[in-house]
Design goal:
Layout (H helix, E strand, L loop, with lengths): L4 H7 L7 H32 L4 H24 L6 H12 L4 H9 L14 H9 L24 H6 L1 H4 L8 H12 L9 E5 L2 E8 L12 E7 L7 H8 L3 E6 L5 H13 L4 H7 E8 L35 H4 L6 H10 L5 E4 L4 E3 L3 H11 L10 E4 L1 E5 L9 H9 L3 E3 L6 H4 L4 H6 L7 E6 L12 E4 L18 H9 L3 E6 L2 E4 L10 H26 L8
Parallel strand pairs: 3-4, 3-6, 4-5, 8-13, 9-14
Antiparallel strand pairs: 1-2, 2-5, 6-12, 7-14, 8-12, 9-10, 11-13
Helix pairs in contact: 2-3, 5-6, 9-15, 10-12, 19-20
The protein binds 2-acetamido-2-deoxy-beta-D-glucopyranose (4 copies).
The site of one 2-acetamido-2-deoxy-beta-D-glucopyranose (NAG) has 3 residues, from loops.
Pfam families: Glyco_transf_49
Keywords: Membrane, Transmembrane, Transmembrane helix
Protein name: Beta-1,4-glucuronyltransferase 1-like isoform X2
């Protein structure tokens, strides 16, 4: 009974070129422009009556008005009536984008008086909801079966928050099979092949699925893949990550030259020797890549890669190696972080992916709870704009365990054992909209969307880490880890494509223990300068052509 074609599209969260979103944007834009033009028109009109002889001005103004109004009038004929109050919303929003963070937060909360006396006055409930949901006016246009829709075809935002579980008439029972069926019907995704392949990707050779997890072929709806990248010195993170994620991990290993052998040894070690190796075998799929200029001397065929087991009385290949030991460091190579990110993403077998950094550990139970949330199919999943689901990120000090749930995290935050991620390094890169409210809100049983934000205003440089899909823009492979800003250009593309950021509650990432402090690194500072030039002079102009522009978006 459920999935119409439209539903599938919106629930999948993958509408990169979503025509509805585009249309919506154009219409909103027209409405905004028209309301300004009408005001100008009225002023001109009054002016022309007060000041005699304004005929020329008026007639040119008048014809301009007519021109501008025409498309809106045509649109209005084919669209449900748009309450004029939304124009008011629109204006405040656009203003907000250029304001300071504090103002923006306060402004979101400010009640917006309806501009049209014909509109019923906003109820306190709705005002509160505008505060929770600054982009609430985007609602509509998608047909939602059994949804709470008021008489105008304009969904009451308050109901979305208050009544979401009941709204669509079913509640997840916890029955796995049923959950799976429901997610499957909603996503309507495609299963992928799970083959070992040797590929070229720009200047890189890629051994895709070089060491495969034992899970075999997966159905695209059944779980979520954590996609990530590393060199072998980071592989000590894999078991702690898997203990919490407990689901597939697709990991691209950068292994140029003589880094190849220890990389393969480390994979063997993880599969044979560590406590938790069962998780590694079950879930971790390794891809290996290196520059065509730094090919290892010899590479076993994938089927032979694991033939000889690792001697487990030897230490882990990643034990006590400094990154200065790497071939990469000796040859002064840059770490091609975005090549790795994209390889790992492309090889994922599931519809939903969490593209993350291997040192960021999610809270346990996230996968199941997320899929349960998808299965509940709440109204915010019917919104027309494309979306991703960011996670809040935290750091804990070196002596602390990694908090397992939000309640424990809040305890750590209170006692200073945990802080928001990169608070001491680059607060605005990882600042999450409504993070204060998020941190003070008590844990609840279900995973849910806490707030819908945008990458504008204070958050214009936000580099969110989120659950998304492979329909989301890829990462620019010209950017390196050393040059920093490696996720900025993707962030810009998301902003221009009008993505909504559905920030998840009761879900978070914690960095491997140890709080990062700002260290002086002259080489990185120099490379970061070069990267900024590259972005400003080359990549940004490209992105404007490829994705277009939008007010409030910046790299
Ligand atoms: C949810 O909606 C139903 C009717 O659809 C209403 O009776 C109930 O009070 C609502 N619950 C909340 C919490 O608003
Ligand atoms: C494994 O390594 C240990 C320590 O170096 C060594 O004594 C032992 O002989 C090795 N075992 C095999 C089978 O190579
Ligand atoms: C780690 O390596 C350094 C030198 O590379 C060495 O001095 C130190 O003892 C090693 N630590 C351990 C625990 O093996
Ligand atoms: C949040 O949880 C704490 C501790 O369990 C409790 O004392 C407090 O009343 C809760 N706050 C709300 C708003 O439920």
């Amino acid at each position: 009974m459920l999935p119409s074609a439209k539903l599938n599209k919106t629930t999948a969260g993958n509408m990169r070129f979503e025509p509805l979103g585009q249309k919506m944007f154009t219409r909103r834009n027209w409405l905004l422009r028209c309301s300004i033009l009408i005001n100008v028109g009225v002023i001109l009109y009054v002016g022309s009556h007060v000041m005699i002889g304004g005929g020329n001005n008026f007639s040119s103004g008048g014809s301009f008005l007519l021109q501008e109004q025409q498309p809106a009038a045509l649109q209005a004929a084919s669209q449900p009536p748009q309450p004029i109050a939304k124009n008011g919303n629109e204006l405040t929003q656009l203003e907000e984008k250029t304001q300071s963070p504090l103002n923006a937060v306060e402004n979101e909360a400010a009640p917006v008086p309806p501009a049209d006396p014909g509109e019923p006055p906003a109820q306190p409930q709705q005002i509160e909801d505008v505060a929770k949901d600054p982009v609430g006016e985007i609602f509509d246009a998608v047909q939602v079966p059994n949804a709470n829709v008021n008489g105008n075809g304009n969904r009451n935002a308050a109901n979305v928050e208050m009544n979401s579980t009941q709204a669509d008439g079913y509640i997840v029972t916890g029955d796995e099979k049923e959950l799976e069926e429901r997610v499957r019907a909603l996503l309507n995704c495609y299963d992928h092949e799970y083959e070992q392949q040797t590929l070229q990707r720009g200047d890189f050779w890629v051994l895709e699925n070089y060491v495969q997890a034992d899970h075999g072929k997966l159905k695209c709806h059944e779980t979520i893949t954590y996609t990530t990248h590393a060199d072998y010195t980071f592989l000590d993170n894999l078991v702690p990550l898997l203990e919490r994620w407990n689901a597939p991990v697709s990991i691209a290993m950068h292994a140029p030259g003589t880094d190849f052998q220890p990389t393969l040894d480390a994979i063997r070690y993880l599969r044979d020797c560590v406590a938790g190796n069962n998780l590694v075998r079950a879930f971790a799929t390794f891809h290996v890549y290196f520059s065509t200029k730094h090919i290892p001397k010899s590479i076993p065929k994938a089927k032979d890669a694991l033939k000889t087991g690792y001697n487990c009385s030897l230490p882990a290949p990643y034990f006590n190696v400094s990154s200065g030991h790497l071939y990469k460091a000796q040859k002064k190579l840059l770490y091609p972080v975005n090549v790795g990110r994209n390889i790992a993403r492309d090889a994922a077998l599931t519809h939903f992916i969490l593209a993350s950094d291997i040192e960021l550990y999610p809270n346990p139970g996230l996968v199941k709870k997320f899929l349960e949330m998808i299965a509940r199919n709440e109204l915010y999943l019917h919104r027309a704009a494309p979306r991703v689901f960011p996670l809040s990120i935290f750091e804990v000090d070196g002596n602390s365990p990694v908090p397992r749930d939000k309640t424990e995290l809040q305890e750590f935050l209170r006692t200073g054992k945990a802080i928001p991620f990169h608070k001491r390094v680059c607060a605005s890169c990882h600042g999450v909209p409504k993070s204060k409210e998020w941190m003070s809100a008590n844990e609840t049983d279900e995973l849910s969307v806490f707030h819908i934000g945008k990458r504008t205003g204070y958050y214009v440089h936000w580099e969110p880490i989120y659950i998304g899909t492979n329909a989301d823009p890829h990462y620019d492979e010209r950017l390196s880890w050393e040059g920093k800003s490696d996720k900025m250009t993707q962030g810009y593309a998301l902003c221009v494509l009008d993505y909504e950021f559905h920030i998840l509650d009761n879900a978070f990432l914690v960095h491997k223990p140890g709080i990062k402090v700002l260290k002086k690194d002259n080489r990185r500072a120099m490379l970061a300068g070069k990267t900024n030039q590259l972005i400003r002079k080359i990549i940004y102009p490209e992105l404007k052509i490829m994705y277009g522009t939008r007010k409030g978006c910046a790299v």
